Amino acid sequence: MLTARNVTKNYSNLPILKGVDITVSKGEIVTIVGSSGAGKSTLLHILGTLDQPSSGEILLNDVNLTELKGNRLADFRNRHIGFIFQFHHLLPEFTAIENVCIPGYIAGVNKNTVREKAVFLLETLGLKDRLDHKPGALSGGEQQRVAVARALINSPDVVMADEPTGNLDSRNARELHNLFFELREKLNQTFIIVTHNEELAPLSDRQLVMKDGKII
Predict the structure, then answer these.
(1) What are the tens digits of pLDDT across the range 167-185?
(2) What CDD domains does this protein's entry cite (predicted)?
(3) How many separate domains does the chain show?
């Protein structure tokens, strides 16, 4: 489903990624691990088209993402790739359900359809009674679940998660781990997860280890 071939990334004369190849299948949960500075987040951002490689190509369902530019790239990203970050990035002035709906509205989906799906996702994630709460009234674990729902609202081909449990306590981290696997079972959702969490990484279908800009 997703394939990266000989991906490199340089900042000035500093090589960060040194020819990375990766293939991820539909419904797979893949974790990327390695020490700080190994290139994990840089690779994830490039796979998710948030950054451009210096060379190489990335294909998602046979679409060459490195050939998309501007609005075409932004539209493809919004419709086909979901993101979960360590610090949620929820908009504080909007409620949980409004935060979840935003990518659907941007994609031009009917507002009632988007809202119905947002309710379904938030209820599925155990937030039935928190739909109209703003982020400041939610716990860290609840905020991260809202972020998960937002990542899923457009039924993306793949969800990219960058240290999704890094800001959670051990109980909420464990619950989020379990949630990823439940979503894979219910929705056949694909996840690529960058993590330092020693509990999550071994549970994935595959664990890719990065060192010095390469997968070893």
Answers:
(1) 777 787 888 888 888 888 8
(2) ABC_MJ0796_LolCDE_FtsE (cd03255)
(3) 1
